[in-house]
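Example record

The entry below shows one chain as it appears in the dataset: sequence first, then structure tokens.
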Amino acid sequence: QVQLVESGGGLVQAGGSLRLSCAASGRTSSVYAMGWFRQVPGKEREFVAAMTREGVNGYYVDSVEGRFIISRDNFKNTVYLQMNSLKPEDTAVYYCAAQGSPYYYIAKPYDYWGQGTQVTVSS
């Protein structure tokens, strides 16, 4: 089994930055692509960004392209989300997720989920 623990959320003013971290533990050899999702009350969970195990390419939803950067450190079993130029509409609970098998494609289901961390952007 794999456990994911997010950290780094908080309150920030519009235009500011935050960096989220997600540490994987347990059977980390079965962690492949890792990603970030977000959800606001009353709405469906939204894909934000993902990165394959090789850590070469990042995939982003259009609304964060150019502002957010996903990266990962496989030695630390950690994925990061650097969020810059934050907007009030980025306010959400952010979830880390991981896929437990290779061959990434963007619609592939995620097998492991963290508990989420709140990000609030004030105007």
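Notes for this example: The radius of gyration is 13 Å. The longest strand covers residues 18-26.
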